[in-house]
Design goal:
Length: 154
Amino acid sequence: MSTKTEQQTKTAVGSTRLVDTNMNMLEEHARELSGMGQDWKMYQWQCLPLGSMETQVYRVAGAVAPTKKTGPRKGETNWSKMDKATHREFYIKPDDHTQWMAEWEKKTDKCAECAGSGKTLRRWTQEDGAEYRPCRQCAGTGVSTTEVTHSAKN
């Protein structure tokens, strides 16, 4: 019999709720809401309500923080020294985020699914880290495939 912690981990890792939106895009949406610019970074997010229910809202928290200058974690964000004056927490509804992504895609002409990178997360493991695959929305090109964008160009 597995412990409660193991069950929670299995639920969290196996749940599609954790990947029902591109986290980079969720961070970009929250950054736009914060008005802080590219230095503002998301350090925590959550699908609410917790459990196996459908996501009603994303809770996103972030701030401006410096990067570590030395040591084995050089270049990583130093959250212990974040600027508390820039801390912001947002609650974003999935429908609002979907609408924001469509507007972002029209504005940038990039695929909102992969944020223009042409890659989406396939899986993540502790041993290997992140593994990516070509974006299914744009077939790995990173270019928007919406009808509105293409008709506006012609």
